[in-house]
Amino acid sequence: MFKRIMAPVDLAHVERLAAALDCAADLAKHYGVPIVYVGVTSSAPGKLAHNPQEFAQKLDAFATSEAARHNIEALSHAAIAHDPTTEIDDALMRAIGETGADLVVMASHVPNVIDYIWPSNGGKLAERAKCSVMVVRA
Amino acid sequence: MSDNTDIDETTGIPAPEGASELIDTDYEIGQDNIETQIGPVGLDIHNPVFLISGVSVVVFVIYALLAPQQAADFFGWLRPTLTSTFDGFFLSAANIFVLFCLVLVVSPYGSVRLGGAEATPDYGYAGWFAMLFAAGMGIGLMFFGVLEPAYYFGTPWGDEPLGAVRPFTEDGALIPENVDAARRMALAATSYHWALHPWAIYAIVALALALFSYNKGLPLSIRSAFYPILGERVWGWWGHTIDIVAVFATLFGLATSLGLGAQQANAGLEYVYGIPSNVTVQVILIIGITAVALVSVLRGLDGGVKVLSEINMIVAIALLLFVLFTAGAVGIFVDFGKTLAAYAQELIPLSNPFGREDDGYREGWTAFYWAWWISWSPFVGMFIARVSRGRTVREFITCVLIIPSVVCIFWMAVFGGTAINDMIANVDASAVKANVIDAYKPELSLFAMLDGLPLAAITSTVGIVLVIVFFVTSSDSGSLVIDTITAGGKIDAPVPQRVFWCTFEGLVAIVLLIGGGLGSLQAMVISTGLPFTVVLLVMCWCIFKGLMQEHKHI
Predict the structure, then answer these.
(1) Cys bridge to B64: A22, A135, B86, B517, which one at CB 3.0-4.6 A?
(2) Domains and CATH numbers, chain B
(3) What percent of chain A has pLDDT over 70?
(4) Global ipTM
(5) Which residues on chain B are in Cβ contact (under 8 Å) with A111?
(6) Structural domain boundaries of chain A?
């Protein structure tokens, strides 16, 4: 049913994504398709990496470890945004196109009133993406 | 993503796009940060810098409110004393910055690319220029574009530039044989303040920050530029102090400009629409500007500041073209050519720091401007660095120094030239002369000039809107910069922090507007221009050392 699954990953908070990542891995095993782990970074140095190249390397290492852990095929794709905290949805939308994914499995928090003031990551993605999106609540 | 397998030998970190000289340090960006969650709101703040900056801002505001006369007396004495005592220093330093930039353009170091040898620019030219102007000079051009040339042309207060001749008699009649010389000098002296020198100040800071961040992997914060001099000490109290002073100067620079700007906008609204000039209207203006800035902050860099800057650039160009064609395009183009020539001829005498007699101009305008711009340079420089990745040093300096200088001179030729022509043609009835020379009301100068052209109500409204949107972009980009510095150089701190700084700045402006203290605290900010001048001179040296290492990789 699906040919390629995309799993957005926040490398700084991987422990919060356990449910979504396990779900994505299970689906990948079930359908026998690869997962593309997508991370969004900026071009300026940050906590995770000094530059986008280093970030891509770390993401790749993460993908390799997930592949070994779940016995699936895993790829990585690093997306660069000028202002990551405000542009995550747009960066992920672009990544869907660039990776050719037809299912996105992502983590999200339970909706609350703050979402009316500043939107949650992924809220817009679920609304506007052309492919299927599965939101796994923590 | 490009398949780049260059690994830097000393650090083990892969190089950014194309090779560059990464700095080997154990410092991890964010290692001094407190990361926590207050309810639904995330926090990621640099431990000493955020807290000390915030507290010291509050302390100074309280001081200004509790002892307004003392604050006004002290800073009202300090700022002019500094600009008159150290005018030689300010002028010499600014000359060094210009020369340094021009030397970099022609040197082989100009080929070093910000972000690595194969980096591509983050933004196209149009968006990039729009953001440069909005951050660096938009408000200034609107406010001083008419005022300054008109002022130098006819000032009766003895502060003509370089002893230029007065074209008016004591009774306000015109002296025809002095007109050309006075006009030439007025436009040249104005151009001096808005062309190479101020942009060089911003270019130096921006270049230093971009180089040490994108090429060398250090956090995007003012302290990183000092790594060649301070080494690992830059992560300790040396660095904390540099960052705290930068945040302090930026926040107060923005807040006091916002407060004073609200007063100016109110005066303009009164002149055009008869809206009364009082604190209530001004507070409403500040709240409105802050609210729009908040929306822009939430939309982020590309969706917020960039969009507003581009809109403002288009509207400003439209206003410029309108004035150009209604005031006589051919004459103004001739004026522009003459102004460029005059600027080139008078540049050296005007930038000469010693042995001059025009104290009023040199201390009251030039040194004042340099101190003011240097105190703004951490903010503007950091913002320019943020949006300039991917450009070569040569391209960067050409586009941040040379092209904006030409544009600013053209702007002055159009707006200032038209104002001067108005003063010459209607000596008795000129609104410009009435508001700049006969009675000094600087905030009305732009509207006075537009009054003499068709569709004055529309163009004046456009002018007010432009000023307000420039304040919004300043507030937004300023919040971004303060947030980055107080998060230890991280540009991905939670958005609520930017919202906090944007709101805090508006609040400080309102408090100072109501309680008094705008003028004195602005004088305080400008006084920080003196220590910052030393900082910038050190930055030149650090840029040189940094480029020397990068050059190996071209």
Answers:
(1) B517
(2) 33-553 (1.20.1730)
(3) 88
(4) 0.85
(5) none
(6) 5-137
